[in-house]
Specification:
single chain, 602 residues, alpha+beta, Elongation Factor Tu (Ef-tu), domain 3, Alpha-Beta Plaits, 11-stranded mixed sheet, 22% helix, globular
């Protein structure tokens, strides 16, 4: 078998820098698609949530061919909650394209991923994207990237990184900011000029390390990894060195490589390539596949521990079973077990206590867990979830907690309120930059302090502020943080909310519901204007008189309700509350629905 030169290339960037769009353009211009083939935007973002949110959640692989060289492209997540995906991919690549927005410059997640790449000795190719923006500052951004490289202790060779300027949406790259180009040829040539193809180690004993997982209903768990040396064949007998250092035997039942966007079955794959293998049931991240009797394990890939947990439990509200198809503990367990097949950043522990049967689900952050919940909801699951809890650690007898770097951009006139709020949440201001009436704040803050902060931040800035957060490290416990300032409005009984009742109650706070919404006893219908909870009757009708019938609508001018997204709902609730999640509704409720029982417990 002739050995085709192979380059594995990562694409890393901050959320919304244009990463998936650039990969689209690389695929299109390399001839992967037929001329008459209809191609969607953000091809690599195949998940519905990825398309809706404009973010990459799961790392994906594809391949192109240019001048006789196969280039495997690994498109990685940009959000910090999916950092475990990024780290594994970095180990499997020969170089990376570092994509930076020509206006925003390097962002916190860019820093995180770049640090991993530089530590591995990778010399990135820098692509300054969106140079067609009116407020672009590409020259200044290149200097910012250089400063970041220096700050991350890049070596002299890495500091000589090649720079290209481009517009990913138009599929254009240039060597000079004011240069001329009609396509991505400058980028293709820069890759070949700066990245050596992987050496041909096909004659050596097999060494394949798994860096990603997939699942197929027919084939079971699929391990995706790089062949560092040797060749792997379909139906080959192999040895696997496990995470616990034990060695097991197995057989490759199906072997795939990437051609364009597709996994195609092959008889063999050679050193340097990315291969997907089926037949090894419990294969996991970091494990090495080798020849029988000669499996030499590569250094294990560390999987970062979760930083946040939530309790998932069966929905037992009065409206349970009206929307979903999957309602029982057995259904929940099966779905979470399936998620564990591919989501290695997740941990699931069954909890059986008095009057509680639940699953403690731990992940890399709030978004990581919210994505799972949203997917389950769309698949027809009903469940209830608790308030997120940050996972603490003990080190040398001291309590430590996860700390995050938060970058906030907001109008200067709101900065005082936001700074006061962050300080109360145990945040430490690291930097403050002013520019044309706007302020950029950079804070180091406990993850605990960010629970519930996003909605307050949007209120405080009248929706004009933006917030980006990324996990940094575990640090010393910062002390108590005050909880939610306001209590909630709780429904007294079951029924349908009336305009008359909501109008009468509007002086007490703001609502999550509108007239004619079905409610039940213990359901949270709004935010109280004071710090205590208030039980109210949102279903009350106007008394019948000889002038007007009961229940008639006098045209009340009610403010629009505050409709919470799943993430906002999870952030909002307190320790004695739950979020009820169904395919058609997101409701907030008290854990104990009956008012007398709540008072007795309190």
């Amino acid at each position: 078998m002739d050995h085709k030169p192979i380059i594995n290339l990562g694409v890393i960037a901050h959320v919304d820098a244009g990463k998936s769009t650039l990969v689209d353009a690389l695929l299109k211009q390399s001839g992967v698609f037929r001329k008459n083939e209809e191609v969607k935007d953000c091809i690599m973002d195949s998940d519905d949530l990825e398309r809706e949110r404009g973010i990459t959640i799961y790392s994906k692989n594809c391949s192109i061919e240019y001048n006789g060289i196969k280039i495997n492209i690994l498109d990685t997540p940009g959000h910090s909650d999916f950092s475990s995906e990024v780290e594994r991919v970095i180990k499997a690549v020969d170089s990376v394209i570092l994509l930076v927005d020509a206006t925003d410059g390097p962002m916190p997640q860019t820093r995180f991923v770049l640090k991993k790449a530089l530590a591995k000795g990778i010399k990135p190719i820098v692509f300054i994207n969106k140079i067609d923006k009116k407020n672009q500052r590409a020259v200044e951004v290149v200097d910012m990237v250089l400063d970041l490289f220096i700050d991350l202790k890049a070596d002299d060779d890495q500091l000589e990184f090649p720079v290209l300027y481009g517009i990913a949406t138009e599929g254009v790259a240039r060597h000079e900011l004011q240069g001329e180009s009609e396509d991505l040829t400058p980028l293709f040539n820069t890759i070949l000029d700066n990245v050596e193809p992987y050496p041909d180690y096909s004659s050596r004993p097999l060494q394949l390390q798994i860096f990603d997982l997939a699942y197929d209903d027919y084939l079971g768990r699929i391990g995706i990894g790089r062949i560092y040396q040797g060749q792997i064949k379909n139906r080959q007998q192999v040895e696997v060195t496990k995470r616990n250092s034990s060695v097991i035997q197995g057989e490759i039942s199906k072997l795939f490589v990437y051609q364009g966007l597709k996994q195609v079955p092959v008889d063999r794959a050679a050193s340097g390539d990315i291969a997907a293998v089926a037949g090894l049931e419990d294969i996991s991240i970091g494990e090495t596949i080798g020849e029988t009797g000669n499996c030499k394990p590569l250094p294990m890939i560390e999987i970062e521990e979760p930083t946040m947990s939530m309790y998932f439990m069966v929905n037992d509200s009065p409206f349970a079973g009206q929307d979903g198809d999957y309602l029982t503990t057995r259904h929940l367990k099966a779905r979470l077990d399936k998620e564990l097949e591919i989501n290695v950043g997740l941990q699931v522990q069954k909890v059986e206590q008095k009057e509680l049967e639940a699953f403690k689900v731990s992940g890399r952050g709030q978004l990581h867990l919210s994505i799972l919940l949203e997917n389950m909801r769309r698949e027809g699951y009903e469940l209830s979830v608790s308030r997120p809890e940050v996972l603490m650690k003990k080190k040398d007898g001291r309590l430590e907690e996860p700390l995050e770097r938060v970058v906030l951009d907001l109008p200067e006139k709101y900065s005082g309120t936001v700074i006061e709020n962050l300080n109360q949440r145990r945040g430490i201001l690291q930097n403050m930059l002013e520019n044309n009436g706007y302020v950029k704040l950079i804070y180091l803050i406990p993850s605990r302090g960010l629970i519930g902060f996003r909605s307050e931040f949007l209120n405080d800035t009248r929706g004009e502020g933006s917030l980006i957060r990324s996990f940094v490290h575990y640090g010393a416990y910062r002390g108590e943080i005050a909880g939610r300032n306001n209590g909630v409005l709780v429904a007294k009984s079951r029924g349908r909310a009336t305009a008359y009742a909501l109008n009468s109650l509007s002086q007490h706070g703001t609502f999550f519901i509108k007239p004619n919404t079905r409610v039940y006893e213990g359901m949270i219908i709004g935010i109280h204007s004071r710090s205590n909870d208030l039980t109210v009757n949102p279903c009350k009708n106007k008394e019948l008189t000889n002038m007007r019938a009961a229940g008639s609508d006098d045209g009340y001018n009610l403010a629009p309700p505050e409709e919470l997204t799943l993430e906002q709902a999870v952030e909002f609730i307190d320790d004695d509350e739950l979020v009820e999640i169904t395919p058609r509704a997101i409701r907030l409720r008290k854990k104990t629905l009956n008012e007398k029982m709540r008072k007795r417990q309190a």
